[in-house]
Amino acid sequence: MNIKPIKTKKDYELAMTRLETLFDAKKETAKGDELEVLSLLIDKYENDNFPIELPDPVEAIKFRMEQLGLTQTDLAEVVGQKSRASEILNRKRKLSLEMIRKIHSSWHIPTQVLVQAY
Fold first, then answer.
1. Domain of 20?
2. In this structure, are residues 69 and 56 in contact, taking their beta carbons and an 8 Å threshold?
3. Helix or strand or coil: residue 23?
4. N or C: which terminus of the chain has fewer CB atoms within 10 Å of its end residue's CB?
């Protein structure tokens, strides 16, 4: 096993190529250990160099509604009123802390997404 930190794009490409050859390695073997360590290094490099931003709170709500087949009426049941749901979806009303808690609890949208400024 010859593992080193991934510092450049070339290192990353070589690591990805090696990962492909190790992909079916059995756990508790030398190749399995190499696969595990290499995966962690690749993950670290990707997180440092290709960060994924959190989604916009309203877009996250709309996406979850689409995923679950929910309507504006369903959002109104969570936040209190149909007009309030409409204002949220049209960005005319900000989410209150109470709304964030209810949406998180009901629809399991992470609070770190819902509390962002938009």
1. 9-49
2. no
3. coil
4. N
